[in-house]
Write a structure and sequence with these properties.
Blueprint (H helix, E strand, L loop, with lengths): L33 H13 L4 H5 L8 E4 L7 H4 L5 E4 L1 H17 L9
Length: 114
Amino acid sequence: CKNKVTRAGRCEDHQRTAKELGARPAYHQLYANPVWKVLRDGVLNLYPLCCKCEKEGKVTMANVVDHMTPHRGDMKLFLDPLNLRPLCQSCHSVKTAFEAQCRKTKQDPRTFYD
């Protein structure tokens, strides 16, 4: 494109949307909730290994507590201990990409744990 570039590094016709820039949804603020922090720490203390790696015969420390069913701000799902699984950062990144694909294909994202 030969348009004049703005301070953000793109011309007006090619500016990226907030979604493309990775803006977090409003419910992301729930992760600052003290109740969540206690629940998260409790899960990691009880289950210190990544459940996905463990299923594959690998031993990897978990450092992320994942919601099996995406909560999208639903507090009941957000704080439900039965909806939580410990993952390592690598498996969580794979699961996040898998969820994005599931939204396109209408597949159940919980199949990641099968």
